[in-house]
Each structure stands twice: as structure tokens, then as C-alpha cells.
């Protein structure tokens, strides 16, 4: 991750934020957090001498890992070795007081290219992209001159300073060509699949050269100009497979309106065979400079003179005037223009678009011809001509026009623009203000809060009233950061709600509408869906479109396209077939010296080898019969796929471990486990862990290596943030506890604090027992941490942890118990005093004295402790209080605990006393006395095993005089429970 990328997860920043204001090594004052990455956090800091710099501090979790520390510090050595003006200079390195290594770096002010790309709506002007990439390639020339390959070039790793200087960030995974420490498949874990060359994705680490970086530059140009990444898989693993197996189609298939020279340059840099790419950075730089001249874009300011020790690659040659003047320089592109109007050849008829919609279900909008048509379309009527929409660079095609039932285009929110002050636009903008009030309330208070309920009802009433008067008013066209209607933006939310249109757009939604008849609950469900975070709230295989489809809201309609506006396989084949026809037309035009403008408009593939080249049948192609015979043999059962996945994962893990890159490989496995935990599929994650561990034990025979690898694997899957998610899920639903208990026992001591913080909030007894068992594994030597977690916990948790300290019997445990005996938490203090008392008699006497304390809280704590530890010597005091005149005036909780203590401490004397209380009524019914009688009956039902008690309670339940209905009901239920207990204890014999 880039140095200055801001994390989207507030929880990830909680630890680094705490550093702000602190002083590192007595000289660096942390001023603010710039960003959080996977391995480190970056801070703005000032030295005591006034110098300002950026401090990149390795996360504490990694500080103890030697391999990760070495890789972290390697960034400093590699970056300084290049010493180009576009690299970030590392001024020094040091360690914090806690032993975390950190780098002192240049402090940059500005934005990453990724941020600039996002602000521009995910499409940047071609001229601007060329300016940025030319500077990047110039830096790569210096890198490659000393055999340094960056390997992770992407928009997030390119920085634009306020002075318009380009900086290449994050040399943490750069490779020295003469290094021998990385071989085989380890390279697949390094880099970003969306910008990765095929040879890097295939793990051919020892074969990488500078052309892999040039491929990444081409991938950046492709993404920044078109808005589409080349390997846009649903998961990182899928994107990696695409990078390793799928050649990149021509960029013309997404943006055929681009200048032919620019298409040619991007396609060449993305060639599958690296021999067909630019062969070095200077060759690519010459091409980019020529393109900039043709675009009328000036190169960014000349780089400053080389710094000391800088390795300077051979200079970029000047551009011959003939090249610079080959075409008249158009103005710098401000955005992707609409495609040029062109004569429609006979082989390329004007296209038509179809759009279907099913209630509540998004259907793909697919081009029937695959290309944008001419700029003239049939009109709605003689008086109101309707123009088709222009090519939309965000969609990658021209959006469809609304259709009347007859098939003729009609005016609608997608196709027709109206004046800014149109009443329909103004009405919808006013309605969207209800969203701006409702969404923050949901985020802050939740759905159950009265303020949220009021905001939701107000929003519902506003939309219902508007829909009664204008049934089509609630119709939107989606854009990545806004909602539009009739050509005008009606809602452009700020963070964090700008994620709503972005997530909807990203899953393929292009239109959305709410129809008359929508209910309040339906609107609540709609907003709940909009607020979902696909990365956090949905499983990897699902997206928002699938969630909308599953809900099937009857009055919410939407339409979807996929990433390339494609339909089913046959439609895609038709599209590519037509693209091939146009490619042939472009070839003929080139041979016949057709004008340069027409050739540019028609070309879809611009590799020079494509012109005039006819497609031939491959000598390796199979005929249909052979293909059919092989298909059945190649089918693999689902179970076999699972086995192969486990085998492949273990082989990759072992290979990475042998090359000391296991932490990086296991990072993706941790993310997958966290995704499963978020959606509650803990059992699936546990089963995967068991399968991996079983296979690992088969592959590795040495017990010592086996235990280390298993521990690292399990901790990677379930440690850290994943454990937090799992424990939160188990607190809400402990059904997966049994399967997870074995995994928890295999985690390391680093998770002790996470478990301690969660056990404080646990009320489920079985989950508490499992967590306390984990704490017991690692409590020795860390008794002070255990003691610190006890005060303020649930009463039963306090007792469980104090008993754990008592069982440890270590000097640290004794010290912790004495400390807790003075705690302000009365439950912890009372429980701890039992264990530090010089004798049992002394403890009983102290508890008996506390039963007469003026504070009800103290009395309750003493009662619970006496009952838990069977302090029979306190029974006399308990009986005296129960028989006292003020007993019925005590609080309900205290009366319950007194009666429980009476029954538990001395059952043979306690049962008759409590039964007498249950039976004792009065001429005048008293609420307090009847509450005591109900409590007495209920506790007898919980604890007694006496047939006589059951008979007496049954008789009480049938009394009609001087007994409240509540007491009769409690007595009847108690008698029934005692009877059931007697049946069970006598092997099913009747009571």
C-alpha cells in the first residue's frame, strides 16, 4: 500500500491515531496521521530543531518479525540507491522506545494519483495521464539502470506534489535483479494484480526485468483514461488468475474514440509477450513525449539537477520536429470526448440498444451491435426530436434510451435533459434533503432510535406525497459519486455517504426508481441496502445487486449492466465478431491510403502487426468431436475442486515459507477468513483451517517444523482483527462455539489482550468458559494484564478470572489478588478477599460482617461470594435477615440472593424456611410480601429435589384465598419443575 494512502477503516487507524501528540526518541513530535497501510503508518512529524519530515513506523504486530523488519528497512536502501528526483528520499532510520523500526522520509504535500483519479470521476484527461506517466517512466529509467524493478506501480503509489512534481512511492517490494533470495512462486504474493504483468503474476520472479514495470505503466494509463482496470476480478485471487492467464484486449474496445497513436501505445505496453512491448524505459518515454506533442500537452517542469550519488540513466532524446508536427496539436483533453461522427459502412449498421426491467430485479442492458451509432436517431414526434445519448466514458458505452411500449424512444430521465429550474428536478432535490437527515441519524443512533424513526417517517411521507402527484418523480440515473435526474445532479453526498452511489454504480446499477405504493418498511429496507458496505457486510461472492435482487422490494426498480456492458456469452461473441470486422475495415483503409482521420475512427486494434494480418486456424485447435470427447473427461466434481484448492494453498504456503515470505502470502488468507467471519460463516472458516492443517501435517513430517507452520497458519487466519470479528459474532450467536473452540486454543499469546477485552462483555457461560480457558494458557507471567481486565467486568466474569488467578498460585498471581482486594470494584474486592484471607473462618466472618453493611451493593456482592464459595458459616446471618421484619422491604435482587444463599448453604434447614415464606400469607394482601412468596416458590422450583416441597407448592398453586395470581402461578410452575427433576433422577419413574 502506498505511503500516504488513507485507510477507509476507522478501526484500523485507532492505534496510530493515539500516537498523535507523542514524542518519538525525545526529538520527533508526531503532528498528525497521514495514512495507514498494511505494514506501517505514516505520520507528519517535526524535529526539535524545527525540521519537518514524514515518519513511517512499522506496525507493532510486525516489529518482532525479523523478515518483515528486513523488508521494511529494504525500502530505504532501495529508494536511496536509485536516488532519482521522483523517489522519496529516506533521511534516516531508527527505532521507537517500543522497538518498532521507523523511517524518516521527505514530507510530501499533495495527492496520490489514485485520489486525483477519484476526484475526476474515475476518468482523467489523456494529456494529464501522459504528463504523469512520462515522469514515472523517466524515474524507471534510473531504476532499471541499476537493475532495480519496482514491481508495484499503481495509481496509489504515484504522488503529485503541490509543486506538480511526480513522486514514485513504496519501494518495499522492489527487486534487485542480482538478488537470489526470491524464487519460483513467491512473486505472486507481491504486487497488485490489477496492474501486474503476466510474468509477474505467474511467479517467474527470476525472469522479471524492466518490461514488467513498463507493463504496469500501461495498465495505469488504461485505468486512468478509461476508468476500467485491466484485471478487474471480484476478488484479489480472481484478479491474479486473470493477470496470469488472460491477455489484455485492445483499449479500443472500451474507448475507440481515443487517438489511434494513444491506443497503439497503450496496447503495445500491455502486450502479453514482453518482446512485443517497449524494450526499455527510454523507448517508452520517447513514445509518450511524441503523444504529448500530438495532444498539445506540455511535459511537466524539468527535473532538478541530479542529487549527490544519483545514478543518471542515458537522457531522453529530443523529439524530432517532424514527429512533433506530424499532426495539428489539438487542445489538451478535458474529458473523454464523444466518438467522432463517421460514415456508417455497409458492414456496420447503426446500432440499437435494448433495455429490460423486471420488478425489483436488475437486468443487463446490452448493446445489440456492440458499437455506438451515428449521432442522429428517430424523434419522439415531429415537434420534439430526441438525440441519443453520447458515449459515456464512465459506462464505456452509450447508455440506452427509454422505450415506449411500441418500441419508439420516449423522453425520460435517462435520455432527455431539461432546464436546471425544472419543477421535477427541484422537487426531487427537496426530497433528497430527507436522505441527508435520515442517513446520519441511522449511522449515529441506529434504526431503533426515536430520532431515526422520525426521520424515516418524514422521508416516507414526503416521497409518498410527491409520488401521488408525480408518479415518475423518484427516478435517478446513477453516477459513481452522485444521483442524477433529467440530466441534472440531485444528490451528491459527502463522506461517508458518498460511498452509496459509488457502491451502487460499482455493482453495475445504472438506473433506480421508487414507484407509488412503497411502504414504510420497504423504504427502511431500501435504505438499509444502500448503507451496506460490500467489502465488510457481504460475502466475497455477493455484491449489492445480488442483495437488492434477494430482497425483491416490489416498488423499487433498478437496472444493471456488468463492467463492460456485456450480455450473455453469445452477445459478447457477436460484439467481438463485429469488432473483428471493423478491424479488417481499418486494415483495408490503411492499405488503400484512406485518410488518416477515417482510419483513426474505424480502428479497433492498433498493433502494427494487426494491419493486413489475416487470422488463421491454430495448428493446436481441436475439432468439435474431439472437444466434446475431452469435455467429459475434464469435468471435476465440487469436492475435488475443494481438495485441489487446499493442496494448492498448502503448496504455495510451503514454498513461500521456504523463501521467508510466509507473512505476505498468509495476508490474503487472513482477509478471506475475516470476510467469512463478517457474514457469520465461522464454521466454513474453521473447516477450511482444519483441512489446511490436516494437509500440512501430511506434507511436513518434522514435528518442530510442523508445529511452527500450523501455528503461523492458524494465527494468520484467526488472529488480530479477525479474532475481534469472530468473538463479536459469537457473543451474538454462540452456535459456532464448539467448532471454534479448538481453533482458539491454537492461537498464540499475542491474542491475550483481544480475548481479555472480549471476555469482559461475555454473558454466555459456555463462551466465557472457552475464553477463560484460553487466558489460562498464557496467564503465567502476565498476571498484571489479567488483573487489569477484571474490574468493571460482569459478576460471573470477575469470579471466573479471580479463580483463575487463585489456581495459578504464582507470585505474580498472589500480588494481583492482593491488588484486587483493594479494588474499587466491590465484586472484585469481595471475591479477592476470600483468596487472600489467612483462613476460611476469617473469610466467613468478614463476609458475614459485610451482610449487615449499609450499602445494598456491598451486601449483594457478599451474598454472591458466600454462595459461590459455600461459606456455611454465614448461614446464621442470612437466616436472621430473612426472618427480620424489614426483609420484605429489601430490593428484589437482594431478597432473591438471600433466599438462594439460604437454600444453597444449608439445604436441610433452608428449604423448610423458604417453603414457609412461600406459604405464609395474610388477611390483607401485600405487594412486597406476595413478591417474596413468588421469589421463594421460584427458587424452590430451581433448587429443590423434595417430593414434600413439590406437594406443598402444588397445594399452594390451588389455593383461592389470600394468594395472589402471581404467587399461584409461580408455585404451580415450581411444583412442575421439581416433579420433572424427580422423574429424571429416578430413571423415568413417576414422581
TrEMBL record:
<keyword id="KW-0723">Serine/threonine-protein kinase</keyword>
<feature type="binding site">
    <location>
        <position position="56"/>
    </location>
    <ligand>
        <name>ATP</name>
    </ligand>
</feature>
<feature type="domain" description="Protein kinase">
    <location>
        <begin position="28"/>
        <end position="289"/>
    </location>
</feature>
<dbReference type="Pfam" id="PF00069">
    <property type="entry name" value="Pkinase"/>
</dbReference>
<dbReference type="InterPro" id="IPR008271">
    <property type="entry name" value="Ser/Thr_kinase_AS"/>
</dbReference>
<keyword id="KW-0067">ATP-binding</keyword>
<protein>
    <submittedName>
        <fullName>Serine/threonine protein kinase</fullName>
    </submittedName>
</protein>
<dbReference type="GO" id="GO:0004674">
    <property type="term" value="F:protein serine/threonine kinase activity"/>
</dbReference>
<feature type="region of interest" description="Disordered">
    <location>
        <begin position="343"/>
        <end position="384"/>
    </location>
</feature>
<keyword id="KW-0418">Kinase</keyword>
<keyword id="KW-0808">Transferase</keyword>
<feature type="compositionally biased region" description="Low complexity">
    <location>
        <begin position="372"/>
        <end position="384"/>
    </location>
</feature>
<dbReference type="InterPro" id="IPR000719">
    <property type="entry name" value="Prot_kinase_dom"/>
</dbReference>
<dbReference type="InterPro" id="IPR011009">
    <property type="entry name" value="Kinase-like_dom_sf"/>
</dbReference>
<dbReference type="InterPro" id="IPR017441">
    <property type="entry name" value="Protein_kinase_ATP_BS"/>
</dbReference>
<dbReference type="GO" id="GO:0005524">
    <property type="term" value="F:ATP binding"/>
</dbReference>
<feature type="compositionally biased region" description="Polar residues">
    <location>
        <begin position="352"/>
        <end position="371"/>
    </location>
</feature>
<keyword id="KW-0547">Nucleotide-binding</keyword>
Amino acid at each position: 500500500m502506498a505511503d500516504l494512502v488513507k485507510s477507509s477503516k476507522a478501526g484500523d487507524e485507532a492505534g496510530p491515531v493515539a500516537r498523535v501528540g507523542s514524542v518519538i526518541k525525545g526529538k520527533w513530535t508526531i503532528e498528525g496521521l497521514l495514512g495507514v497501510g498494511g505494514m506501517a503508518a505514516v505520520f507528519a512529524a517535526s524535529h526539535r530543531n524545527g525540521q519537518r519530515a514524514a515518519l513511517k513506523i512499522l506496525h507493532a504486530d510486525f516489529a518482532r518479525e525479523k523478515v518483515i523488519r528486513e523488508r521494511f528497512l529494504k525500502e530505504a536502501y532501495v529508494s536511496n540507491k536509485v536516488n532519482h528526483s521522483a523517489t522519496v528520499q529516506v533521511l534516516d532510520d531508527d527505532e521507537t522506545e517500543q522497538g518498532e523500526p521507523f523511517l524518516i522520509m521527505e514530507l510530501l504535500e499533495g495527492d496520490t494519483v489514485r485520489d486525483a483519479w477519484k476526484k475526476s470521476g474515475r476518468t482523467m484527461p489523456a494529456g494529464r495521464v501522459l504528463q504523469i506517466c512520462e515522469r514515472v517512466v523517466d524515474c524507471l529509467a534510473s531504476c532499471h539502470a541499476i537493475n532495480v524493478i519496482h514491481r508495484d506501480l499503481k495509481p496509489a503509489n504515484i504522488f503529485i506534489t503541490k509543486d506538480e512534481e511526480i513522486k514514485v512511492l513504496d519501494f518495499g517490494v522492489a527487486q534487485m535483479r542480482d538478488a537470489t533470495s526470491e524464487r519460483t512462486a513467491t512473486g505472486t504474493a507481491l504486487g497488485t494484480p490489477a496492474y501486474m504483468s503476466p510474468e509477474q503474476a505467474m511467479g517467474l520472479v527470476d525472469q522479471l526485468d524492466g518490461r514488467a514495470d513498463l507493463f504496469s505503466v500501461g495498465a495505469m494509463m488504461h485505468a486512468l483514461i478509461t476508468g476500467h482496470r485491466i484485471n478487474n476480478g471480484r476478488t484479489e485471487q480472481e484478479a491474479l488468475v486473470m493477470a496470469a492467464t488472460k491477455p489484455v484486449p485492445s483499449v479500443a474496445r472500451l474507448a475507440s474514440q481515443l487517438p489511434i497513436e494513444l491506443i497503439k501505445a497503450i496496447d503495445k505496453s500491455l502486450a502479453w509477450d514482453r518482446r512485443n512491448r517497449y524494450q526499455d524505459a527510454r523507448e517508452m518515454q520517447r513514445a509518450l513525449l511524441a503523444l504529448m506533442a500530438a495532444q498539445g500537452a506540455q511535459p511537466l517542469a524539468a527535473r532538478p539537477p541530479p542529487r549527490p550519488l544519483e545514478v543518471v540513466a542515458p537522457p531522453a532524446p529530443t523529439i524530432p520536429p517532424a514527429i512533433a508536427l506530424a499532426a495539428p496539436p489539438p487542445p489538451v483533453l478535458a474529458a473523454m470526448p464523444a466518438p467522432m461522427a463517421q460514415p456508417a459502412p455497409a458492414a456496420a449498421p447503426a446500432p440499437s440498444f435494448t433495455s429490460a426491467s423486471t420488478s425489483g430485479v436488475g437486468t443487463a442492458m446490452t448493446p445489440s451491435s456492440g458499437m455506438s451509432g451515428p449521432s442522429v436517431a428517430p424523434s419522439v414526434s415531429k415537434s420534439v426530436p430526441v438525440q441519443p445519448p453520447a458515449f459515456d466514458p464512465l459506462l464505456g458505452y452509450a447508455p440506452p434510451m427509454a422505450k415506449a411500449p411500441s418500441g419508439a424512444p420516449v423522453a425520460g430521465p435517462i435520455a432527455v435533459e431539461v432546464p436546471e429550474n425544472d419543477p421535477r428536478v427541484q422537487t426531487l432535490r427537496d426530497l433528497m434533503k430527507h436522505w441527508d437527515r435520515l442517513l446520519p441519524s441511522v449511522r449515529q443512533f441506529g434504526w431503533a432510535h426515536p430520532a431515526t424513526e422520525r426521520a424515516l417517517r418524514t422521508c416516507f411521507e414526503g416521497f409518498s406525497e410527491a409520488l401521488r402527484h408525480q408518479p415518475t418523480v423518484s427516478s435517478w440515473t446513477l453516477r459513481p459519486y452522485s444521483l442524477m435526474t433529467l440530466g441534472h445532479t440531485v444528490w451528491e453526498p459527502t463522506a461517508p455517504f458518498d460511498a452509496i452511489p459509488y457502491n451502487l454504480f460499482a455493482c453495475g446499477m445504472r438506473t433506480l426508481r421508487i414507484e407509488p405504493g412503497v411502504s414504510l418498511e420497504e423504504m427502511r429496507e431500501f435504505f438499509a441496502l444502500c448503507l451496506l458496505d460490500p467489502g465488510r457486510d457481504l460475502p466475497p461472492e455477493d455484491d449489492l445487486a445480488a442483495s437488492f435482487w434477494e430482497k425483491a422490494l416490489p416498488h423499487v426498480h433498478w437496472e444493471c449492466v456488468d463492467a463492460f456492458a456485456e450480455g450473455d456469452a453469445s452477445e459478447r461473441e457477436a460484439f467481438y465478431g463485429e469488432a473483428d470486422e471493423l478491424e479488417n475495415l481499418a486494415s483495408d483503409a490503411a492499405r488503400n491510403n484512406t485518410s488518416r482521420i477515417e482510419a483513426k475512427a474505424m480502428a479497433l486494434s492498433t498493433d502494427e502487426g494487426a494491419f493486413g494480418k489475416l487470422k488463421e486456424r491454430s495448428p493446436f485447435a481441436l475439432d468439435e468431436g474431439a472437444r466434446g470427447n475431452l469435455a467429459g473427461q475434464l469435468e471435476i466434481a465440487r469436492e475435488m475442486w475443494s481438495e485441489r484448492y487446499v493442496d494448492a494453498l498448502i503448496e504455495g504456503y510451503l514454498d513461500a515459507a521456504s523463501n521467508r515470505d510466509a507473512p505476505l502470502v498468509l495476508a490474503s488468507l487472513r482477509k478471506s477468513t475475516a470476510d467469512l467471519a463478517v457474514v457469520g460463516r465461522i464454521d466454513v472458516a474453521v473447516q477450511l483451517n482444519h483441512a489446511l492443517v490436516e494437509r500440512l501435517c501430511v506434507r511436513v513430517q518434522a514435528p518442530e517444523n510442523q508445529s511452527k507452520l500450523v501455528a503461523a497458519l492458524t494465527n494468520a487466519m484467526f488472529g488480530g482483527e479477525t479474532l475481534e470479528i469472530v468473538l463479536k459474532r459469537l457473543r451474538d450467536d454462540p452456535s459456532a462455539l464448539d467448532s471454534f473452540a479448538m481453533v482458539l486454543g491454537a492461537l498464540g499469546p499475542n491474542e491475550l489482550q483481544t480475548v481479555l477485552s472480549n471476555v469482559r462483555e461475555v454473558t454466555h457461560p459456555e463462551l466465557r468458559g472457552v475464553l477463560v480457558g484460553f487466558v489460562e494458557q498464557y496467564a503465567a507471567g502476565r498476571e498484571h494484564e489479567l488483573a487489569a481486565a477484571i474490574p468493571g467486568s460482569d459478576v460471573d466474569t470477575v469470579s471466573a478470572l479471580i479463580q483463575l488467578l487463585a489456581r495459578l498460585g504464582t507470585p505474580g498471581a498472589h500480588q494481583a489478588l492482593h491488588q484486587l482486594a483493594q479494588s474499587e470494584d466491590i465484586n472484585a474486592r469481595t471475591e479477592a478477599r476470600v483468596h487472600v484471607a489467612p483462613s476460611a473462618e476469617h473469610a466467613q466472618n468478614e463476609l458475614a460482617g459485610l451482610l449487615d453493611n449499609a450499602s445494598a451493593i456491598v451486601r449483594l456482592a457478599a451474598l454472591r461470594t458466600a454462595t459461590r464459595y459455600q461459606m456455611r458459616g454465614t448461614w446464621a446471618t442470612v437466616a436472621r435477615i430473612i426472618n427480620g421484619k424489614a426483609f420484605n422491604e429489601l430490593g428484589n435482587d437482594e431478597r432473591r440472593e438471600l433466599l438462594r444463599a439460604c437454600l444453597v448453604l444449608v439445604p436441610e434447614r433452608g428449604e423448610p424456611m423458604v417453603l414457609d415464606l412461600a406459604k405464609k400469607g395474610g388477611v390483607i394482601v401485600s405487594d412486597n410480601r406476595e413478591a417474596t412468596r413468588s421469589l421463594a416458590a421460584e427458587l424452590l422450583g430451581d433448587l429443590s429435589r423434595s417430593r414434600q416441597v413439590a406437594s406443598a407448592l402444588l397445594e399452594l398453586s390451588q389455593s383461592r384465598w389470600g394468594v395472589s395470581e402471581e404467587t399461584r402461578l409461580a408455585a404451580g410452575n415450581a411444583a412442575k419443575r421439581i416433579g420433572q427433576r424427580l422423574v429424571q433422577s429416578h430413571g423415568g419413574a413417576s414422581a
